[in-house]
Automatic annotation (TrEMBL):
InterPro entries: NDK-like_dom (IPR034907), NDK-like_dom_sf (IPR036850), Nucleoside_diP_kinase (IPR001564), Nucleoside_diP_kinase_AS (IPR023005). It comes from Streptococcus oralis subsp. oralis. The keyword DNA-binding does not apply. It comes from the Bacteria. ATP binds at K9, F58, R86, T92, R103, N113, N118. This is Nucleoside diphosphate kinase. Major role in the synthesis of nucleoside triphosphates other than ATP. The ATP gamma phosphate is transferred to the NDP beta phosphate via a ping-pong mechanism, using a phosphorylated active-site intermediate. The active site is at H121. Keywords: ATP-binding, Cytoplasm, Kinase, Magnesium, Metal-binding, Nucleotide metabolism, Nucleotide-binding, Phosphoprotein, Transferase. Residues 1-139 form the Nucleoside diphosphate kinase-like domain. Belongs to the NDK family.
Length: 139
């Protein structure tokens, strides 16, 4: 069965959206394979996670945001879960995320020199899912 990796980002945990996100995962019928609260995520781990973005000019606020508080990390499985979870999350930019998606319903635009507060992460391909699962769950 296909698997994907997801994060409830620091904004989601701080705003009390963990239950809301998990409810949507359960309602969709995906199976929770792993679920952990990580309260001290290192900058090094976030840099590895976002290896394709670290060189971008907009990256430093993302590193700062992602290490700003506890996050939830997990693995879910189901048919076409990678694409479905991306659909459920919605578009990266809050103003482009459709109503009914997690980001469309909850994401907040970036303030000056701040990261977009878009509540959730999901792997964008089979290759990313494998890489991210191995990175975050070393066992
Ligand atoms: P996604 O999270 O939808 O997979 P991504 O992997 O391209 O998007 O980027 C990771 C995060 O980085 C994204 O959730 C928000 C931020 N980000 C991406 N592109 C950005 C940009 N052009 N300016 C500011 N922040 C950006
Ligand atoms: Mg991405």
């Amino acid at each position: 069965m296909e698997q994907t990796f997801f994060i409830i980002k620091p904004d989601g945990v701080k705003r009390g959206l963990v239950g809301e996100v998990l409810k949507r995962i359960e309602r969709r019928g995906f199976k929770l394979e792993k679920l952990e609260l990580r309260s001290a995520v290192s900058e090094a781990l976030i840099d590895q996670h976002y290896q394709d973005l670290v060189e971008k000019s907009f990256y430093p606020p993302i590193r700062q945001f992602m290490t700003s508080g506890p996050i939830i990390v997990g693995i879910i499985s189901g048919p076409k879960v990678i694409e479905s979870w991306r659909d459920m999350m919605g578009a990266t930019r809050p103003e482009e995320a459709l109503p009914g998606t997690i980001r469309g319903d909850f994401a907040k635009a970036a303030g000056e020199n701040q990261a977009i507060q878009n509540v959730v992460h999901g792997s964008d391909s089979e290759e990313s899912a494998k890489r991210e699962i191995a990175l975050w769950f070393k066992d």
